[in-house]
């Protein structure tokens, strides 16, 4: 990948604010920032948190080298005093939030960042760009996995988005319930299952379909999946079984009426003795198309465009707002915007979820000063939703890497089961549980 500093994956005004704050003395004021969304995408019942592990990866490299500092200086973006401050920059604040794979709703405090104003403001754009996109993909993936029931979904979206987004999408898709990815860089970086065999061009480059199938089976073995819709599907299935025998691993259908074709192909495979051969379908699938295939004899789904674009909601509209800050007397005090339709709730937050008969009932957001929150006693059945990610600059490495992704994958499935069953409905509706905010 391109060698770059995550500290430059930001908007210019983060640095100009830092520059002004260093000059007026407010850069060292302690602050608490919060990430939340005011609303879910229209009609969605829940969202899935993803991307926090990538933020932690970026934090490890969040510093500026001489070339970066020279750029800021030459462009006169910041003053010499700020350049000096940035030379030794290291985030030594604390971060806590919802774990990856957790469900979120309007006003859920998905992430809380505590540190000095100067440190926290530099993280804003990076945090939002990661959480907004990754959570959008994970949320769409979760809906697709629900529609697929117990049939695996695979990420095939790399060619439908930016090359870096493709890697992020693969990771987020697995958190959202997908089983693997066609993107090799994502598979390498995060230890994900890699999938893929051949495209139509492989068939077309050979003199005939049988030669293409023989070549693929010879190279990849009988357990491979042969693409059967380049010419005539019925003839291709006959040829596939002729070449690989009844132990053929799978066939893939990438066009046409997928439900009826899958049914005909299943019957044909069974008639040819290939009863264990799996059927994979692709072709611009989304959660609705997958749901329409529930009664079809399909064994797995390959999803591309709709996955990496959040199935119509490529962002979660998350924002990063200051909720508490140190005043000129050195006392921490809650702050809030009062803008029309953009008002915020002052103070740092606690977040819980209450249950009735083992099903989530309400999201409880408790806001107040650090002292009041420390004294707050939740009900016995309330689940604490916030986990620590960074403690005074020390990153919890258990939230990074392959194992963290797999744990988030499993956690999402369990968390979804704890929501009312209407969460899995594809019909438009409100958030599946209400959010209640209490200011102490």
Automatic annotation (TrEMBL):
Keyword check for Transferase: yes
Gene3D superfamilies, sorted: Aldolase class I, nicotinate phosphoribosyltransferase
Physiological role: Catalyzes the first step in the biosynthesis of NAD from nicotinic acid, the ATP-dependent synthesis of beta-nicotinate D-ribonucleotide from nicotinate and 5-phospho-D-ribose 1-phosphate.
Annotated InterPro entries: Aldolase_TIM, N/Namide_PRibTrfase, NAPRTase_N, Nic_PRibTrfase-Fam, Nic_PRibTrfase_pncB, Nicotinate_pribotase-like_C
Post-translational modification: Transiently phosphorylated on a His residue during the reaction cycle. Phosphorylation strongly increases the affinity for substrates and increases the rate of nicotinate D-ribonucleotide production. Dephosphorylation regenerates the low-affinity form of the enzyme, leading to product release.
NCBIfam families in the cross-refs: NAPRTase_put (TIGR01513), PRK09243.1-5 (NF006698), PRK12484.1 (NF009131)
Keywords: Glycosyltransferase, Ligase, Phosphoprotein, Pyridine nucleotide biosynthesis, Transferase
Protein name as catalogued: Nicotinate phosphoribosyltransferase
Enzyme Commission numbers on file: 6.3.4.21
UniProt source species: Bifidobacterium aemilianum
């Amino acid at each position: 990948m391109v060698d770059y500093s995550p500290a430059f994956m930001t908007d210019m005004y983060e640095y100009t604010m830092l520059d002004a704050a260093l000059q007026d003395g407010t850069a060292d004021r302690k602050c608490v920032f919060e990430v939340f969304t005011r609303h879910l995408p229209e009609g969605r019942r829940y969202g899935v948190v993803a991307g926090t592990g990538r933020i932690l990866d970026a934090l490890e490299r969040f510093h500026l080298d001489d070339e970066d500092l020279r750029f800021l200086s030459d462009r006169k973006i910041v003053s010499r005093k700020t350049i000096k401050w940035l030379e030794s920059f290291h985030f030594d604040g604390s971060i806590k939030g919802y774990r990856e794979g957790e469900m979120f709703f309007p006003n859920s405090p998905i992430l809380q960042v505590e540190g000095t104003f100067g440190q926290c403001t530099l993280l804003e754009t990076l945090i939002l760009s990661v959480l907004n996109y990754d959570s959008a993909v994970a949320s769409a993936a979760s809906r697709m996995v629900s529609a697929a029931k117990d049939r695996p979904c695979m990420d095939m979206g790399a060619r439908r988005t930016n090359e870096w987004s493709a890697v992020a999408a693969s990771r987020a898709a697995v958190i959202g319930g997908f089983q693997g990815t066609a993107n090799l860089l994502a598979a390498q970086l995060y230890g994900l299952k890699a999938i893929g065999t051949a495209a139509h061009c492989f068939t077309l480059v050979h003199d005939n379909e049988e030669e293409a199938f023989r070549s693929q089976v010879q190279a990849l073995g009988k357990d491979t999946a042969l693409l059967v819709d380049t010419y005539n599907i019925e003839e291709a299935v006959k040829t596939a079984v002729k070449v690989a025998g009844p132990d053929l691993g799978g066939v893939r259908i990438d066009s046409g009426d997928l439900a009826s074709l899958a049914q005909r192909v299943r019957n044909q495979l069974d008639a040819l003795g290939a009863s264990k051969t799996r059927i994979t379908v692709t072709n611009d699938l989304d959660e609705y198309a997958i749901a329409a295939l529930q009664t079809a004899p399909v064994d797995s789904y390959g999803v591309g465009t709709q996955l990496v674009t959040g199935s119509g909601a490529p962002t979660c509209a998350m924002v990063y707002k200051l909720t508490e800050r140190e005043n000129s007397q050195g006392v921490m005090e809650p702050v809030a915007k009062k803008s029309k339709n953009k008002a915020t709730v002052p103070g740092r937050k606690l977040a819980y979820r209450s249950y009735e008969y083992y099903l989530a009932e309400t999201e409880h957001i408790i806001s107040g000063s650090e002292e009041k929150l420390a004294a707050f006693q939740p009900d016995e059945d309330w689940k604490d939703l916030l986990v620590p990610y960074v403690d005074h600059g020390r990153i919890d490495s258990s939230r990074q890497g392959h194992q963290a992704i797999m744990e988030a994958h499993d956690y999402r499935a369990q968390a979804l089961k704890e929501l009312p069953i209407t969460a899995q409905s594809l019909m438009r509706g409100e958030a599946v549980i209400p959010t209640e905010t209490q200011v102490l």
